[in-house]
Amino acid sequence: MAEVNRRRFLSGGIAVAGGGVLGAWGLSGTAGAETRPVRAGGGEISRGWTFVAADGAEMSGKTLASAEEVAGLKPAVVPGTPLTSMIANGEYPDPLYGHIVTDTVPDTLKDTGYWYRVAFRVPKLVPGQRFWLQFDGINYLGTVWLNGVEVGTVEGAFKRAVFEVTDIVAKADGVAWLAVLVGKLDYTDPPALPSYASGVTRGGRNGGPTGITLKNGPTFFCTAGWDWLPTIPDRDLGIWQPVTWRTTGPVRVADVHVTSTLSPDLRTADVVVELALDSAAGKSVVVKGSLDGREFRRAVSVPAGASSVKLTSKEIGCLRLERPKLWWPNGYGEPYRYGLTVGVESGGQVHDERTVEFGVRRIEYTRPIQSPSGEMSDCLAITVNNQPILVMGGNWGLDEALKRIPRERLRAQVRLHRDANLNLIRNWNGQSSTEDFFAACDEYGILVWQDFFCSTEGPAAENVDRDLANIRDCIVRFRNHPSILLWCGGNEGPPPQPLVDGLDALVAELDPQRVVLTSSAGDTGADPVDGYRSGGPYHWVPPARHFELSDGTQWPPFHNEVGSYSIPTLEFIRKMLPEASWERPDDFWADRDVNGNGGNGGGAGYLRLTAERYGEIRNLPDFARKSQLMNYECIRAIYEAPVAFMGSVRPYPRTGVIMWMTNPAQPSFVWQMYSHDLEAHSSFYAVQHACRRVNVILDGRSLDVVVANHTAAAVRGWVDVGVYGLDGAEIARESLPVGGVAGADRSVVGSVASLVKGASGEVVFVRLVFRGSGGVVRNFYWVENPARAAGFSGLDEMAPAAVSVEARVEGQEVVVEVRNVGRVVALMVHLQVYDTRTGERVLPAAFSDNYLSLVGGESSVVRVPVERDVVRRGVGVRVDGWKIDQGASRVRGRGVAVTFNQGALDVSPRVNTFGR
Fold first, then answer.
1. Which of 1, 188, 399, 653 could disulfide-pair with 649, CB 3.0 to 4.6 Å?
2. C-alpha to C-alpha distance for 464 and 495, rounded to whole angstroms
3. Residue 490, by phi and psi: left (phi above 0), alpha (psi -120 to 50) or beta?
């Protein structure tokens, strides 16, 4: 028999309130006969919204939720925020481009609540039909009226609200009037202002001048101002997630929870389906569904009110999967998702139906590693489906500063993480928690380290019950997603004990298969997980420093925050700054985070460091090209260093690294691997090249050659080593045998230290090519000669390289062949796809490779998917790089315009202009 009980199953997850049901089956005022079918329906309410500031407005919910004429309302963007609506209405320009945010938009937008209003068509209900109104996210407090009736409230930005409004809609004449009062934050700080001269970002304090914003509980507290985000004037208030309506029969499926238990040998999986039901009255129904094309049904008796039904493989044969298709993290296999459709019906009428995607995978969270105390400790070390996974991830602070995050943009952002060979995103403080985010991570095989809403940058949330209610709903709402790896209480320090205890209890109740951590800095649970930390560095350091920090002698093995400056392309720098600031770093640069956390002495210190390492900065194009090399060498090392010391390394093998950050919330100079407009600059390709599942790596400290193998099968072959001078001449060549590198391990196969030290110049190039059972993998390095280290200013003494660039269209791809037709190394050859009509870059553009470094005679083929409309309008490829001899180079295209990027190559003005 199916298991039925009357407990309030998950009732704390979604608020159900409002009009209710009148009578057991019929509805007061509803026309129609009993024999008319009950039809499910629904949709998103996204058009026709208006809004107005609430403070000082003589309005009421009763009036707004009616057909009465109301003056003063303006068009609103929903989902969205007041500021996004104001930008759409032309009241303000986009403050993130060419502006200082706090100089452009008044900070008073946060000091009022906002009324939202919309009218939408509703169906004529038949007997037994129920009507539901759902809000997926309101920041910060919401009060809802429908047709003049207050139907309920919702508190906290990350909690849904579902209101049954059947009796109200039954009396409507085809149109319902909805009004929502969005309440302002209880606590706010004045804005944190940028100052380039200070060398720190926005006063040097995250969370605003006092951090009091964090007392509000679940909200976007980072909008008070952080070292990666300006103060957002409306603090991202508003109806920021979709508003939908739906109809059901007398029995609603309030929630579907799917869990699977995969056998140790991966041969079978037992699926359990738990349904939370909400019934208008006691009734016998049939639970009917299908899994993987196999149908099932089970008759149950449902009591009035809330109840649950549990279906297992002991009763329903198709819930046991033989040889299941598994969900794998990116790079280890297909992230397969099963589709489960389940519904409730009686008398041949479907009351309600849901479709859920879920993945089958087996996760082990720890393995014993000897700690510095000498005792064995259960350390964070992830194994998925019996395959050890070196976590290579990225931190997201916020998906987008103004919450302008349509599904396709968000999917593109997650897709870029897949393409960069990453396997995890840490959702910092849960600030990007949406169905679209988790669905994209499911699709692309990206694990999620899911934080909740507490940070050490200010006081704890004042309303613990509200915080826990939001946490409860997040767990219930998202736990079916296979991408979620673990739950975590907050950032860099433990939340107050009531929140810690509450979170532990919620995970034990709602999702016991997953691990819960107290914070990103450490775990204080009953069975604590050890071996991880945050703490940077967050600024630029030479590659050798990252190899030192990850060399197997440093505790702990898992490092979840480490980052660097990450300068975008010249085109984007010019796009995000006003022209008057292009050559003169100032407060506009500071509002784009150039001071970072002050680790390099702020923006001015980073500029000095760049000049010391690569030579005096002559103009903005020169800064952009030198910064691409700065990006590449440091950020590649952030990932290569733990890869070089994973597996059998002792005493402390690396188990994971999460870069701070990979996704930018706004246009920025730091902490990203692509820019806000989704252009992948050199940082992206540094990550992509460092995180390949079979790789050959040059240890930035010892100059050892390391072959790394993330896969299950051993790899063997050989590594071709080439060492070259600045003139392109080959200094040395060597072949290193690779006898066999075990799965999830690495091996030092040789060293180039003596070859590099024996070179006559201060700078040499090292080319590594692994050939073997893992395929062909290539890496390229510019290296200081340890015997005469003096930075890389000598690169400017190189002769320019001669390249051949040919491009053509094949189907929906632009195919570009780049060849070094001279002798000098072609260093960091950079390609952009652009629209020939406008000259604008085509974005996002998923190049198979970019920032190519080729020795004489070497070539590379790059593929870029493009939309048909782009090809039809006219597509081109622009080329730049470290130093290119345009006269000796050849560019040509077939159906593609190929040109040199003159702006980026214009790096030698007659008079230096940068900073003057």
1. 653
2. 10
3. left
Contact 171, 147 (CB under 8 A): yes
- In this structure, how many other beta carbons lie within 10 angstroms of the beta carbon of residue 49? 24
First CA to last CA across the chain, in angstroms? 81
User: Cα angle at 42 between 37 and 48, to 5 degrees?
Assistant: 135
* pLDDT at residue 38, as a whole number: 62
The separation between CA 701 and the C-alpha centre of its own chain, rounded to angstroms, equals 31
| Mean pLDDT score across all residues of the chain | 94
- How would you class 305 by CB atoms within 10 Å of its CB: exposed for 0-12, middle for 13-18, buried for 19 or more? middle
Nearest residue to 16 via CA among 146, 154, 129 = 154
How far CA 591 is from CA of 197, 587, 606, 621, 623, in Å, comes to 12, 6, 16, 20, 18
Task: Supply 81's token pair.
Answer: 């925020």
What's CA 416's distance to the chain center, in Å? 9
Measured distance CA(833)–CA(850) in Å, rounded: 12
User: Six-digit token pair at 715?
Assistant: 């790899």
pLDDT digits (tens, 9 = 90+) for 783-835: 999 877 789 999 999 999 999 999 999 999 999 999 999 999 999 999 999 99
Q: Dig out the tokens for 822 from the structure.
A: 């001279």
pLDDT tens, position by position, 449-490? 999 999 999 999 999 999 999 999 999 999 999 999 999 999
* Residues facing 350 on adjacent strands: 345
**DSSP state string for 592-650:** TTTTTTSTTSHHHHHHHHHHHHH----SHHHHHHHHHHHHHHHHHHHHHHHHHTBTT-S
Share of the chain above pLDDT 90, in %: 92
Q: Rounded to an integer, what distance in angstroms lies between the CA atom of residue 82 and that of residue 283?
A: 45
Q: How confident is the model at residue 526 (pLDDT cuts 50, 70, 90)?
A: confident
Token pair listed for 177: 């009037």
Q: Give the Cα separation of 441 and 437 in Å (integer).
A: 6
Q: In this model, does residue 861 exceed pLDDT 60?
A: yes
* Interatomic CA distance for residues 317 and 300, integer angstroms: 17
Beta-bridge partners for 289: 296, 342
The three-class DSSP label of residue 381 is strand
Beta-bridged to residue 769, according to DSSP, are 720, 778
Mean pLDDT, residues 266-286:
96
Which letter, b or e, does each residue of 329-362 get, where b requires 16 or more Cβ atoms within 10 Å of its Cβ?
bbbbbebbbbebebbbbbeeebbbebebbbbbbb
Q: What is the pLDDT of residue 28?
A: 27
Q: What pLDDT does residue 710 have? A: 98
Give the integer Cα–Cα distance in Å for 516 and 422.
22
Please report, to the nearest 10 degrees, the dihedral formed by the alpha carbons of residues 328, 329, 334, 339 taken in order: 70
Contact present, 306 and 282 (Cβ < 8 Å)? no
pTM of the model: 0.95
